[in-house]
Amino acid sequence: MTAHDAVPAGRAVRVRVPATSANLGPGFDSLGLALSLYDEVVVRVRPEPGATVTIDGVGAGEVPTDDTNLVVRAVRRGLEHAGVAQPGLELYATNAIPHGRGMGSSAAAIVAGLMAARGLLEGMVDLDAATLLTLATEMEGHPDNVAPALFGGLTIAWMTPDGPAHKRLLVHRGVSPVVFVPTSTLSTKLARSLQPMTVPHEDAAFNVSRSALLVAALIQSPELLLAATEDRLHQAYRASAMPETDALIGLLRQHGLAAVVSGAGPSLLVMGSDPAQRLDAAELVERHAESTWRPLMLAVDLGGATVKALPTLEADLAQASTIHGRPPA
Q: Are 239 and 246 in contact (CB under 8 A)?
């Protein structure tokens, strides 16, 4: 295929990508969980050059609506990798994943764009799973969020000399996640800057044991989640940037609930060993929080990101519908 080949004008796809929570306590930069909260994007090729972006929901009026938009950049990265000429693009997004709160919003945007590129290239070039993970990791900087966003479930992600790799695992049906989202935000860059370059050997060994236990707890023995989510590598170092998150995690853990920072924070994730624990966690947060925290009672997403082709007419309707609300089902 040459760079002169092009995706036909009018071709359109719809993408759905789940939120994610990375680290899960001890699994720093390696463990991630896909959650049942979704961003949805319709991407259509148009004859005119450049890109237009319409956003409904989270990020409306805040994120770029031109070629600098992260989803658009990811679409173009996928097409570039395939050696396809860059077309004009129309993008219509309905976003539900909070921004800047440790729920994988940037990973979702990157995965949405790459999955859209995959769908637009249907019948021309195959962007396989390994390629998608590699491109997403290059754009995000690490694979812990993009892996569960792409593949769903619980993922273990690691880097090899040949690039990122992952293993997807099914989560025990008793695991019941709830995410508490504050009104404040925290940048991943700031959170990472608070960590030391080295840690004591005993702390590293501690986290190795807890990470191994956490995998077992999530796939087989949820009753071990409290012990399995102990961490000495990152949460304490970042606590100064999110003191209320740290205080609530301490309170929840004192009551036997497996609470951790969700990703880089400041949201917190509780992984209950049964659904009733989510209600206990919500009651404690409501009673003791100093500010407003929104509880999201979620399930583990099992399928990861999806893409499907849209007829041109349906894409036209998606444009009109997104401007006035959610895209049609």
A: yes
Alpha helix segments (H runs only) across 154-301: 188-193, 201-219, 225-228, 235-238, 243-254, 275-288
pLDDT tens profile 186-202: 777 777 787 778 889 99
- DSSP assignment of 119-179 equals HHTTTT----HHHHHHHHHHHHSSSTTHHHHHH-SEEEEEEETTEEEEEEEPPPTT-EEEE
- The CA distance from 137 to 133, in Å, is 6
**DSSP 8-class letter at 28:** T
**Tens-digit pLDDT profile for residues 88-114:** 999 999 999 999 999 999 999 999 999
Q: Is 188 helix (H, G, I), strand (E, B) or coil?
A: helix
* Alpha carbon distance 84, 78 (integer Å): 9
Q: Which residues contact 39 (CB under 8 A, 6 or more apart)?
A: 16, 17, 19, 58, 93, 94, 95, 96, 97, 105, 108, 109, 112
Residue 128 buriedness (CB in 10 A; 0-12 / 13-18 / 19+): exposed
Tell if the pTM clears 0.85, that is, is over it: yes
